[in-house]
From TrEMBL:
The lineage of its organism: Bacteria, Pseudomonadati, Bacteroidota, Flavobacteriia, Flavobacteriales. The chain crosses the membrane at residues 12-39, 45-64, 84-109, 129-148, 160-183, 189-210, 231-248, 268-287, 307-327, 347-366, 378-397, 403-424. The keyword Cell membrane applies. Its main location: membrane. It holds the Pfam family Polysacc_synt. It is found in: Cell membrane. This is O-antigen/teichoic acid export membrane protein.
Length: 436
């Protein structure tokens, strides 16, 4: 593989991802004011807490999604495509069994607890929250299995397939909620959860059969996951640590400040993470392309991309700070006369957090691609220890959710050297590092 070929493949996938992801982000942002008007601020805050569960549930794939992705790429690089069907159906079989043994006990536990005990100042009926949560958990575990289809597309260097599916899902969900709002269907978490889950399930079933036909995957009686089991468990640890760190915010805010404050935080979070998601469009293909480049010793291409991503992160910081100057005007245009309150300081803090998060994500994606796991685990453990300690001993009810942003900025700055130093040693000073 030549650098020029790698760059060409990267550009094609990135262009298609950019087009589709921007469309998805657009409908995601349009859905926010629509859901606030349909559900109200309190139910919207609960809904955002549910959405956080979606990412946490992905941990129960035990890292096999990323392990499968990397293994498929390696088999393609070695021209051993005949082995792909075996590992694909091995992963599906293993995760299906794991899901069965985890999901049903968890659903039974949730049914027998009162979730309102963990929510500050809630007025929504307890039954509505419980039934909505049970439906959400059941369908989320089903989709957890089907979403392994994303790993197949990513492994085959077709990342724009996943972006296409996400676009279709977000678009259809927006249309259905828009219809609910127009016909003045009573605001209900249950209707919203059912719509979200059923639409996603149907889209991913169709996606699975498309990918199966596209890549000529065969259903085999004999399957094998031993070749990437160790790699998958490393991904499982990293993913579990990362998702705990990323998505504990909404639970902490809901518990300490109530669902209305969760709604405020989530809206600003979504706006800035739209910027991060656009940046991640470039990183989607970088993960897989850097793995191929690494296997072929194309280190120059990797170094060039790291420099470009770092410079782009600086431009993103400047753009975010500029947008923050007009924060209140922006929120008025977006939400109209809403009762939600937004501080300009929060926007500035989110701007800095977006910058350091982008830098962190560059090296995480590179290390994921080359199976360099130890430094990621160290960095994430340090971040999580600092973050949880600050939440436990800090006073969130007094300082509000700005405290969370300050903590996260400090955490990321502290651990960045843990990732940057090994990168410099590996690619600039030729010091040997063990790669799993």
């Amino acid at each position: 593989m030549k650098s020029s070929n790698e760059t060409k493949s990267y550009k094609i996938n990135t262009f298609l991802n950019l087009f589709l992801k921007i469309g998805s982000l657009g409908f995601n942002l349009l859905t926010i004011p629509l859901l606030i008007n349909y559900l109200g601020e309190e139910r919207f805050g609960i809904w955002q807490t549910f959405i956080s569960l979606t990412m946490i549930i992905t941990v129960f794939k035990l890292g096999y999604d990323n392990g499968l992705r990397n293994r498929i790429t390696a088999l393609i690089a070695k021209d051993q495509k005949d082995e792909i069907s075996g590992i694909v159906y091995g992963a599906f079989s293993h995760i299906s069994k794991t899901t069965f043994f985890i999901a049903f006990p968890l659903i039974i536990i949730v049914y027998n607890i009162d979730p309102t005990r963990f929510i500050e100042d809630v007025t929504i009926p307890k039954e509505e929250i419980i039934y909505s949560l049970l439906i959400f958990l059941f369908f989320s575990f089903l989709n957890n299995i089907l979403s392994l289809t994303d790993s197949i597309s990513l492994g085959f260097q077709k990342s724009f397939f996943t972006s296409s599916v996400q676009f279709v899902f977000v678009f259809v969900f927006y249309i259905v909620i828009f219809c609910f709002f127009k016909i003045e269907l009573g605001s209900s978490l249950i209707y919203t959860v059912l719509t979200y889950c059923v639409v996603r399930l149907i889209v991913y079933i169709l996606y699975f059969f498309f990918v199966k036909k596209k890549f000529r995957l065969k259903v085999l009686k004999y399957t094998n996951i031993d070749s990437f089991k160790k790699m998958s468990y490393n991904f499982f640890i990293i993913q579990g640590l990362g998702l705990t760190y990323m998505y504990i915010d909404n639970f902490a805010i809901t518990y300490s400040l109530g669902p209305v404050k969760t709604a405020e935080y989530s809206i600003i979070y979504k706006l800035f993470f739209s910027i991060i998601n656009i940046f991640s469009i470039l990183l989607i293909q970088f993960w897989d392309s850097s793995r191929l480049a690494y296997l072929k010793n194309e280190f120059v291409w990797i170094k060039k991309m790291i420099i470009r991503f770092s410079l782009l992160s600086v431009l993103i910081l400047l753009g975010c700070l500029t947008v923050s100057v007009f924060a209140k005007e922006l929120m008025f245009m977006f939400l109209g006369n809403s009762e939600l309150e937004f501080e300009r300081t929060t926007f500035y803090l989110f701007s800095i957090y977006t910058f350091v998060h982008c830098l962190f994500a560059i090296f995480i994606n590179l290390f994921n691609g080359i199976n360099l796991f130890s430094y990621q685990k160290i960095a994430l453990v340090v971040m999580l220890m600092i973050y949880l300690s600050a939440l436990i001993f800090g006073n969130l009810s007094t300082y509000g959710y700005n405290l969370i942003l300050i903590i996260k900025i400090i955490c990321t700055i502290v651990v960045l050297p843990i990732l940057i130093v090994p990168y410099l040693r590996k690619f600039y000073f030729s010091t040997s590092l063990d790669v799993n």
